[in-house]
Amino acid sequence: MSGTDRSRERCPDAAGPAVVLVEPQLGENIGMVARAMLNCGLTDLRLVRPREIWPNDKAVAAASGADRVLDGARLYGRTADAIADLVHVYATTARPRDMTKRLASPRAAAADLRARAATGEATGILFGREACGLDNDDVALAQAVVTVPLNPGFSSLNLGMAVLLIGWEWYSAAEAAPPTVPELVIPEQTRPATQAELQGLYDHLEGELDTCGFLRNAQARPSMVRNLRNVFARAALTQQEVRTLRGVVTCLVEARHLKR
Amino acid sequence: MSGTDRSRERCPDAAGPAVVLVEPQLGENIGMVARAMLNCGLTDLRLVRPREIWPNDKAVAAASGADRVLDGARLYGRTADAIADLVHVYATTARPRDMTKRLASPRAAAADLRARAATGEATGILFGREACGLDNDDVALAQAVVTVPLNPGFSSLNLGMAVLLIGWEWYSAAEAAPPTVPELVIPEQTRPATQAELQGLYDHLEGELDTCGFLRNAQARPSMVRNLRNVFARAALTQQEVRTLRGVVTCLVEARHLKR
User: Nearest CB to A165: which of B5, B164, B183?
Assistant: First the structure.
């Protein structure tokens, strides 16, 4: 590397976002994702229900030496488990999903992820299966959406290519001017809620809403659940706020014991 | 695509640089290059001495529908012939070549290529063979060099990925001021809630929380109310979501009439 390039050398492990592949179909694509990740200094790969067996020889071949990423990959049965320890999660989508969400370009998302990494916040990016992307339930779990604006006449992006584009923006954002995004200021006595804590709130609220009949329409239930989760996913809740909201649910429900 | 995205649609053929692959080794990689090119609105593919026969079935399979790029690809015996009609040519290299050349990042090269396209100047980008890149004779033919700064510990980029990165920068350089802040996208059938609607939610929720005793500590009440309001104020709720949340409160509370 030349002298000018040396200044760009960055620790590959510097709090980059986790890359979460939901139901990836081909081992070869997982390998290409690993290679693209390491190109961009990302190493935290998480797989939710990969279709082929794991570990996978075709993945190793396609990774072209990015073995450390494959070796460190973790497997999960559910998207919620794969993101449980993360604070801020982006979902990649090719099209709008009829949800109220913050939508970022890859460059805006990269600036945001860099800003969060600088404060030690754990982040991740969800990528869907090759053929059809993420389903709406997975998108609802994310705090924001990132979409790659490409040729509208031919926008279908290979999975590894999608990871590379976002990874490249992450990597090159290290040199960009500091983002001008409003900063979320959190009181010292608390911290951002993890996805696992959010999931606990969802489970609690949905359980009570099943009991009281709010979700009794089986056909409407999935979209109602998504819409509710989406409100709280978007709100950037603190741990304290999750606790407070669970207290609210408990109190509203327990009133039935105290009154009448 | 939403209304804001529609402005990003651009003619795929708007004077993009030619992509010149010098001695590409694998048909599959040529196909991935074609796909990445069309993703980014590039269509002028030129091949110098491809190793495998041409046309190539593996290229077609890997192109995933970018057939028009493959069908229009032109073959050449020498790099000089492939770039004969071009005015300004970039060579992609992973490392400095001990030549005095202008060296650009992909973003700087993209801005330069856009500026040249605006004046009708024909441009191109040379990419070398998968294993070892361009040889020095080919680099010497180019007016300037573009290098992708990646993880110095793992910078070897797949050929299709390299084309995608440069193509992506070309494509996104069309936007004078790309968005740098995640934008809140709201489905068409609803709209942002007014403050009056939010206030209605607060009154409703706080009234029920007074009833059930959650806010009975008079000293803590003001800050608890503030904290709860803050969660919903921050969430950028839609009118529909306010209605849903009020439905949730009502249902949780009314359970006391139905049960026990």
Answer: B164
Dihedral over Cα of B204, B209, B211, B212: its sign: positive
A-chain CB neighbours of B240 within 8 Å are 227
Residue at which a domain ends, from A107, A141, A173 = A173
The CATH number assigned to the domain holding B233 equals 1.10.8
Tell me how far apart the alpha carbons of residues A127 and A159 are, in angstroms, rounded to a whole number.
Answer: 8
User: What is the model's pLDDT at position B54?
Assistant: 95
Task: Mark whether A202 and A130 lie in a shared domain.
Answer: no
The answer to which of A216-220, B30-34, B40-44, B128-132 has the lowest mean pLDDT is B128-132
Cβ distance of B161 and A36 shorter than 8 Å = yes
Same domain, B25 and B85: yes
B124 in contact with A, Cβ within 8 Å: no
Would you call A224 an interface residue with chain B, using a CB distance cutoff of 8 Å?
yes
| Distance between CA atoms of residues A111 and A106, nearest Å | 9
Same domain, A243 and A144: no
Structural domain that includes position A224:
195-258
Residue A159 lies in a domain: yes
Q: Which of residues 52-71 of A touch B (CB under 8 A)?
A: 64-66
The confidence score (pLDDT) of residue A155 equals 87
Residues 6+ apart with CB under 8 A from A188: none
What ipTM describes this predicted complex? 0.79
Domain membership flag for residue A140: yes
Question: Three-state SS for B58?
Answer: helix
Backbone phi and psi for residue B84, each to the nearest 5 degrees, phi listed first = -55, -35
Do residues B44 and B130 share a domain? Answer: yes
Q: Give me the residues of A, 150-209, that contact B with CB < 8 A.
A: 150-158, 160-161, 164-165, 168, 171-172, 179-181, 205, 208-209
